Amino acid sequence: MKFLVTGGAGFIGANFVEYMVNKYPEDEIINLDALTYAGNLETLKNVEDKPNYKFIKGDIADREFIFDLFEKEKPDVVVNFAAESHVDRSIEDPEIFVKTNVMGTTTLLDACVKYGIKRYHQVSTDEVYGDLPLDRPDLFFTESTPLHTSSPYSSSKASADLFVMAYGRTYGLPVTISRCSNNYGPYQFPEKLIPLIISRALNDETIPVYGTGENVRDWLHVYDHCVAIDMILRQGKEGEVYNIGGHNERTNLEVVKTVLRALNKPESLITYVTDRKGHDMRYAIDPTKMETELGWKPVYTFDTGIPQTIEWYLNNKDWWENIVSGEYQNYFQKMYVDKGRVEE
Ligand SMILES: NC(=O)c1ccc[n+]([C@@H]2O[C@H](COP(=O)([O-])OP(=O)(O)OC[C@H]3O[C@@H](n4cnc5c(N)ncnc54)[C@H](O)[C@@H]3O)[C@@H](O)[C@H]2O)c1
């Protein structure tokens, strides 16, 4: 089988590419990524020379490029991770979120209709459900919770999901969608909460916390997310949505304190900053469908995943220091263009 994985130089996409390349040496994995600020090919060092892996630089919203790519490669399966993914950036500049997250998705869907594929999988987010009140711990997002978005980011992801379902129904495209809670683990860009805490605390820098830090997020280790997507691709039913989460709800303040404790750093590093506009209060996934229909169960709890993640960041300082310094942006030029692996 030939898999086209889009956004495979980002945090979750790269973890997924590495997982697939190693687990299925008989399959071919093409990683298509535009290498925006969030794309980092250094993340894929461990697989870049494997015979079943190939990187292609390109934009999912570039129709001519995408149709040419499908004509040439004829993928069997498309897994779309490519997205603008940072809520704060979406508040500053919503338009690029519409272009990549919505129009990029419809471009891929059109190519899938034209060239015929065995499966199109859309990697979505629990943020499409909006948020839950803090005083109702009994409530969880299920696959039938209505879409009720808050930010330009979540609105663009919900729009994409609606197009995916429409292409399934209207054109008979074999589609699936997964909606996952907040991920953490190796290779996460240091602007996101957990790597931000680790990288700043190690330098004894202040840790910004929005508002009072009471917002609750449901944390899932990226490895468990990758396993879940693999299961959906192989056993999931066409036209279905699957929620992925591991019942690891923590307030943002609890997350910060847990990481500071593990690093032996003082809580005095915490600095409260003005809250994000429209900040969602609580996300909490009900993963019953994944567990009962596909037999998925996360390997990590928050208490085992956090030490593993901290250890990874401590052992891979070069990786995130290159991001903080901006050096990672030269990796594509140095390792791919200069070495003649791809044409720019
Ligand atoms: N990070 C989370 O906690 C989380 C949780 C649930 C769902 N998701 C979803 O999972 C997916 C991956 O998230 P992530 O955290 O790895 O994101 P990320 O920002 O780390 O990576 C996104 C990748 O997409 C690439 N990209 C951006 N625009 C592109 C375009 N127009 N064409 C081709 N490539 C492009 C970037 O270069 C980058 O490599 C996203 O769709 C996101 O909405 C993320």
Task: Please explain how this structure is put together.
- With 344 residues, the chain is α/β, with parallel strands linked by helices.
- It contains twelve helices and twelve strands.
- It has a seven-stranded parallel sheet with strand order 3-2-1-4-5-6-10, sandwiched between helices. Strands 7-9-11 form a three-stranded mixed sheet.
- Strand 5, helix 5 and strand 6 form a beta-alpha-beta unit.
- Helix 2 packs parallel to helix 4 and helix 4 packs parallel to helix 5.
- The radius of gyration is 19 Å and the shape is globular.
- It has one domain: Rossmann fold (3-Layer(aba) Sandwich), CATH 3.40.50.
- Bound molecules: nicotinamide-adenine-dinucleotide (NAD).
Beta-strand content: 15-25%
Q: What is the CATH superfamily?
A: NAD(P)-binding Rossmann-like Domain
What is the C-alpha radius of gyration, as a whole number of Å? 19 Å
Largest beta sheet: what is the strand line-up? 3-2-1-4-5-6-10
Q: Regions with pLDDT < 50 over 5+ consecutive residues?
A: none
* Main sheet specs: 7 strands, parallel
Average of the residue pLDDT scores: 95
Q: How far is it from the N-terminal to the C-terminal residue, by CA?
A: 27 Å
What is the name of the CATH topology? Rossmann fold
Structural class by helix and strand composition: alpha/beta
Number of strands: 12
User: Could you give the order of the helices and strands?
Assistant: EHEEHEHHEHEEHEEHEEHEHHHH
Indicate the percent of residues in helices.
40-55%
Shape: globular
